[in-house]
Structure formats: C-alpha cells, structure tokens
Amino acid sequence: MTEILALSGITKRFGGLTAVNELSFSLAAGEVVGLLGPNGSGKTTVMNMISGFFAPTQGVIALKGEPIQGLAPHRIAPKGVARTFQLVRALPSLTVSENVQTALAFGKQRLWGEEARERALHHLEEVGLAERAGEKASDLTYIDQKRMELARALAAEPDLLLLDEWLAGLNPTELRTGIDLIQSLEQRGMTILLVEHVMDAIRALCGRCVVMNAGRKIADGPTDEVLRDPEVVRAYLGDDHA
Length: 242
Ligand SMILES: Nc1ncnc2c1ncn2[C@@H]1O[C@H](COP(=O)(O)OP(=O)(O)OP(=O)(O)O)[C@@H](O)[C@H]1O
Known about the structure:
- The chain is α/β, with parallel strands linked by helices.
- The chain has nine helices and ten strands.
- It has helices at residues 43-51, 73-76, 96-105, 113-126, 142-154, 172-187, 199-205, 223-228, 230-237; strands spanning 3-14, 17-28, 32-36, 58-63, 66-67, 81-84, 160-164, 191-195, 208-213, 216-222.
- The longest helix is centred in the C-terminal third of the chain and has 16 residues, at 172-187.
- Adenosine-5'-triphosphate is lined by residues 14, 17, 19, 37, 39-45.
- One of its GO terms (cellular component) is plasma membrane.
C-alpha cells in the first residue's frame, strides 16, 4: 500500500494555546478519511499545516515520503496537495471556466490559452458543471460554486485532496449531490482527507475516521467503530451520553 500522507508527532502552539498536540496518523493511496472532532479541537489547524498555511511547532508531515512541514502553500501545492475552504474562494467577476483556468495557470503544469480552456472544461465535466462554463461565477447557485471550487482543486491534479467542510450549508438535495460527487472521486482512486460535521456524509464517504479532542487524537479506525467509541461520544455530547 502506498502511503500518501504521514503526520508524525505534529504539534501547533499559538502562544500559550496548544491547538494540535502530538498528532500522528497516515493515509494510504485511495483512502477517504474523515477528520472529526468538536468545535475548536484542531481540525482546521491540521488542514492548514498540511497545506502550508501554518508551520507546525514540531513534528514531521511527509507527502509520499518527502517532508513538507513548514513549506509555503505555493511550494506544497505543486507537490500534489489541493484543498477547498470552509468559505468558497471564487473570483466572482470571472467566468466559471476562467476560474478553473486561473488554477491551471498557477498549478503544477502552468497551462495557458487553448490548452487551459480545454483542460478547464474537462475538470468542469468531472464535477457536472460543464454547461455553465461560460457563466459568471457570481451567477452560480451555492452548490454550483462548490462544484467550481472542487474543479479548481482537481485542476491541480492532486495526489491528496483536502476538503474542509465542503458539504457545509447544502440543503438535503444538494447534500446528496455533493456526497455522490465525492464518491465519484473516491471511485477514481483519489486520496481524500475531509473535515466534516455532517454525520450522514461521514458515514457514506469515510471508511475510516480520525477523531480529535482538544488537539489530541482520541480515536482512529473504521467509521462505525469510531462513532460508537465512548470517548468519542463523550467528546461530542458530554459525559451523560457516554
Ligand atoms: N491563527 C490562530 N491564532 C490563534 N489561535 C488559533 C488560530 N487558529 C486556530 N486557533 C485556535 O486553535 C484551536 C483549534 O482551532 P481549529 O480552528 O483548528 O479547530 P476546529 O476543530 O477546526 O474547529 P471548528 O470545527 O469550529 O472549525 C482553537 O482554540 C482556535 O481558537
């Protein structure tokens, strides 16, 4: 099994606050793993360290065996890490295709012009948005903005896709569409780490979950088992429910 990502003893301190505390886990190629935990447990900080927005205070983050901790985002992205954000970061005055083309221009292959237009269309097809390619990004519905953001991430042809609450804010129908879309990426063998609060989505998508509480890992295993784990139940719901 090829290991795509390995975190070893990762710690992140913000002044006196230890947001992530000696966290270790790894992802094999093709795994879709949920990173769970109550609010403030350190999940987004982990995503920020993997993608280079924060340097860990200590520990090693290896991508395909190569240490990447502390590198800037623009150095990590071309090595094969793409991410989406809690809030969609589109360029609203550009077309949908142009939004994806900007990701291609600054991505691993630095594609421009006709080649970039064709490749953008390919990635928009992957997320079911090809027929909107010429529309302004600001005219898209929320789920379509999410699709576009995913197409921008896929444009980087990542080895590892980080989805940070990508399904948040969708209505039940959109949520089904969003889950199907992530499942289609899973079927194509994409390795995905996702932070998500929607339990139905976690159960549908993640074979395995890592659970954090107050910066520490409290569980790591098959999703059903982890969600039944009394320590996980206690972390989410308090002592009365465990
Ligand atoms: N840039 C920062 N400076 C200082 N403290 C921070 C910073 N980013 C996060 N923190 C703190 O680190 C802790 C972990 O935050 P983080 O956002 O990683 O948690 P989370 O599990 O993603 O929470 P949520 O589910 O609410 O998004 C929190 O106490 C938060 O206030």
